[in-house]
Amino acid sequence: MPHTISDTVARGMCIGCGTCSVATDGAIPLVLTRRGLYSAALDGVTEQDLERASRVCPFSDDAPDEDELGAPTPEGNALPLDPRLGHHGRVLAGRHRSDDYLLGSSSGGLTSWLLDQLLRRELVDAVIHVGRADADDALFQYTITTTSSGVTAQRKSQYYPTTLRDVLDVARRDGRRYALVGVPCFIKAARQLCREDDRLRESILFFVGLVCGHMKSRFFAESLAWQVGVPPEHLAAVDFRVKNPARASSDYDFAATARGDGVVQRRTRALVGGNWGHGAFQPEACNFCDDVFAETADVVFGDAWLPQYAADWRGTNIVVTRNPVVDEILSAGAASGDIELEPLTVDEAARSQAGGLRHRRDGLAVRLADDLAAGLSVPVKRVRPDASAVDANRLALVRQRRRMSLMSLDWFASARAQHDLAVYVRPMSAAIARYRRLEVGGLLTGLLTKLRPRRR
Ligand SMILES: Cc1cc2nc3c(=O)[nH]c(=O)nc-3n(C[C@H](O)[C@H](O)[C@H](O)COP(=O)(O)OP(=O)(O)OC[C@H]3O[C@@H](n4cnc5c(N)ncnc54)[C@H](O)[C@@H]3O)c2cc1C
Q1: How far is ligand 1, taken at its centre, from the CA of residue 302, in Å?
Q2: Does residue 93 belong to any structural domain of this protein?
Q3: Rounded distance, CA 391 to CA 403, Å?
């Protein structure tokens, strides 16, 4: 049986992108779940609407996969294809030239620089991206920006659940030309929707991807803020990526602002759940994604987590292009000295996302096999289910990480209800300790295997 949008929602693996709602003219509402995530609500939806919705759901078998969608342009699809990066034109590392500018960006600032260029060159009228929310009930939301100053004001990565529903509803009506920024599953969902919706297809001219390790629930922001002294009910704003010129780019701070109060800031890696490898507050959807490099976008930006760049506090982007217009803009920026670029190999680009690729390849093979063995519905992925894809130690690690993602959401929901942060921090710390023991065990096993004398 194909895995449909109904299975996706029933299994709690809806990412809340909202394309199903747009495809059905609002027949499918989105709700905020008790785990701090958006999800489609399918009660009472007609069969016909379910079919329309399933064709645009990024986790449904009724929708095309990343290989079938490919890059947005014919030129992009003619480029070489790597199973880790997707189609790739130029593979680069780079950053904005100004240190002052870089303080306001998450990484090398090239995402915002490109968006600004698209506006300045009048290739688009507006940008659809995530910025600070204008309502009290969320910290961030998808927003439409029409000016360079607006693009500059809405920089940085927002590790926070959002939905495309409202902005795409506007975009399909107003006749403007857009660039859309998103994590891989959102770009894929929007591309699918464009196949179904002529007005949107004519409106969204550039798809700008963000490399993605995984998305986070609202609890990520709230749990880090609570740990620095701002409980959820007082939380007004967060900054997930505060750079510190005295430290490596990967060693950034988290900052929280309480209502009517000042900013408190702490090293992210010192906070429980701050290490991305631990998968805290990861939605279940991300356990079923196999796209790290936003393979269906015109260009993707990430962090160049490579030894030659990681020590530089300013941050360095990794860039993979799939559109000649983007290539030309980047080349012009480098020629004018606005930005710095240098070529990387495909292997280096993949290495910069080694953890994400392990999670989306070997880890995914295990999770698919586990769920099928348990009789659960899973989407067809470009990775085959295989519990033997990894050794026994890694198998335990993959399963422990999945447990931590799931349990962190429940522990934090209880902590919130009981107004007691320890209800989350205590069990999560114990789970992380177990994860670390498994990691050390894996390292020792690897070392012993290398040292063991070879038989002649
Ligand atoms: C959930 C998530 C997970 C990520 N995981 C990884 C990872 O594992 N490895 C890695 O190398 N990089 C990852 N990134 C990308 C990384 O954090 C930076 O966003 C990227 O390197 C761009 O940096 P920049 O300095 O060029 O962007 P900036 O100049 O700071 O601009 C960022 C732009 O992206 C927009 N934006 C921010 N958050 C979102 C969002 N959630 N959805 C849509 N638009 C958004 C902003 O509005 C702004 O336009 C992730 C990003 C997100 C949102």
Answers
A1: 7
A2: yes
A3: 18
Q: Which stretches within 244-384 are classed as H helix?
A: 307-310, 324-336, 346-351, 354-360, 362-373
Residue 123 placed within a domain: yes
Q: Does residue 98 contact residue 110 with C-beta atoms inside 8 Å?
A: no
Determine, yes or no, domain membership for 141.
yes
Residue 107 Cα: closest atom of ligand 1? 25
Mutate to test the pocket of ligand 1, among 84, 100, 111 (most ligand atoms within 8 A of CB): 111
- Distance of CA 35 from the midpoint of ligand 1 (Å): 22
Distance 210 CA to ligand 1 centre (A): 5
Q: How far is residue 218 from each of residues 134, 146, 314, 424, 435, measured CA to CA in Å?
A: 16, 27, 27, 14, 23
Residue 186 corresponds to which amino acid? Answer: F
Which residues constitute the domain of residue 133?
5-216+282-356
Atom of ligand 1 nearest to the CA of 115: 49
* Number of domains making up the chain: 1
> Using a 6 Å CB cutoff, which residues line ligand 1?
105-112, 115, 129-131, 154-159, 181-183, 210-213, 215, 301-303, 305, 317, 353, 356
What pLDDT tens digit does each residue of the chain (456 aa) get? 899 999 999 999 999 999 999 999 999 999 999 999 999 999 999 999 999 999 999 999 999 999 999 999 999 999 999 999 999 999 999 999 999 999 999 999 999 999 999 999 999 999 999 999 988 889 999 999 999 999 999 999 999 999 999 999 999 999 999 999 999 999 999 999 999 999 999 999 999 999 999 999 999 999 999 999 999 999 999 999 999 999 999 999 999 999 988 899 999 999 999 999 999 999 999 999 999 999 999 999 999 999 999 999 999 999 999 999 999 999 999 999 999 999 999 999 999 999 999 999 999 999 999 999 999 999 999 999 999 999 999 999 999 999 999 999 999 999 999 999 999 999 999 999 999 999 888 778 777 777 776 655
Mutate to test the pocket of ligand 1, among 210, 242, 316 (most ligand atoms within 8 A of CB): 210
Whether 129 and 115 have beta carbons less than 8 Å apart is answered as yes
308 in any annotated domain: yes
β-strand 178-182 against 204-210: which pairing, if any? parallel
Work out the angle between the directed axes of helices 422-451 and 392-418 (0-180°, nearest 10): 170
User: Helices (DSSP H) in 162-239: which residue ranges?
Assistant: 165-174, 184-196, 198-203, 218-227
